[in-house]
Structure formats: C-alpha cells, structure tokens
Here is the input.
Amino acid sequence: MRTAVVTGASSGIGAATARRLAADGWDVVAAARRLDRLSSLGPGIRPQALDVTDARSVEQLADVVERCDLLVANAGGAFDLAPVLDGDPDVWARTYDVNVIGTIRCVQALRPAHVVLTGSTAGRWVYEGGGSYVAAKHALAAVRDTLRLELVEQGVRVSEVAPGMVATDEFSTVRFGGDEARAAAVYAGVDALTAEDIADVIAWVASRPAHVNIDLVQVTPQQQASATKVARHQP
Here is the structure.
C-alpha cells in the first residue's frame, strides 16, 4: 500500500486531505502538533505528533515512516496582518520557519517520491498587510521550482496547490489573535472555498500517473480575481 504523510493534519486543509487520501486507499500518516485531534480523523489514518519547527520532532516522524510515497507539506499559517513598517520581526521569523524551513525539514527527512506543497495565491499576489505571509509563500513557491529542477533526474515529482480564499475554522482566527468576528468578516459575502475543495485538488494531483507532474494548481473562489478584487454578495 502507498504511504502518504500529511503535515498540519489536525484541522482545516490538512485534516480534510488526510481523510480524502485514506478514502482513496492510501495508508496515511497524519502529523501535527495537536496529537489529540488526530485520533478522530478516522480509519486508515495513523496519528503522529509533529512540530515542523523542531528538527528532533521531524526526525521522530521519519523514524516511524519506512517509506514515503507522498508528502503533503501542508503545515503553515499566517500570524499577523501588519504593514511591513510596523511588523514584528519575530512574527516574520516564525512565519518563515513554519511555512518554509519546516517544509524543507520534512522533505529532507522523508525523501518522498512525490512532494505536494500547500502554497497560496499569496505566493503570487501581494496585498497590504500581508508582508510576512506573502514573503513566506513566495519563498515556498521558489522552493518548489528549485526542487523540481534538482529532483527531476531522480524521478521525484514536485507539485504545488495554491488556494485563494478558503474558509476554515482556524486560519484567519489565528491570524487575528482569536478575534472571531474579524476573521468572519474576511469571508463575508463570499462563497469561499472549503478545506474539502482543496483536499479534492490535492488528491487529484496525487492520483496522476507517475509520468505526469502537475507543477502548479492555483484555485480560487469564482468571486476572487486577485488578492484585492473580490466580488462580495450584498447582505
């Protein structure tokens, strides 16, 4: 049976992807910091504690995964919406560590046959207040391009799925320090993507024949044409 490792699998896109891949017949290792949440993901899914910012934690993940056919490097997040001039360098460092360095740690440790990165439209579009996250996701896109060049002769596939507005329980709430009203306002009037929508795309990318490499899939709600052009329904 093929083995898939999904990082950041305790909620949102990661949890939906772990469930979808298990339903498609993969042996799934669901990895995240909040181990207690992973046990509820369902059958065919093995929970594993993981903090991608901790090198030893990543090593422990590699110790329990004998073979990695697919790595869905999904762990990440945004932690502010501050202008660059007012941004906290520690927040920038944390954002880069989780989204970029953590991904590199996992790829190096697991040496998967197929890497699927959960990127973002923020890896191509900039917006005011998005500096720390935009910079990290632009860097992740560069990592994908570089890995593709470096691993092509080894037969390793490298892909990126880059969502736009995805309404999940935690992404914007975390970004706004727990302010649920402010988080909800981000998606007001928008039929936003769901975590299951992105899991469906990731599963499709992973299911292509071995000679097919899907380099990049950028997926947005129909109402979102750019970082700032969003056609909101009137209440």
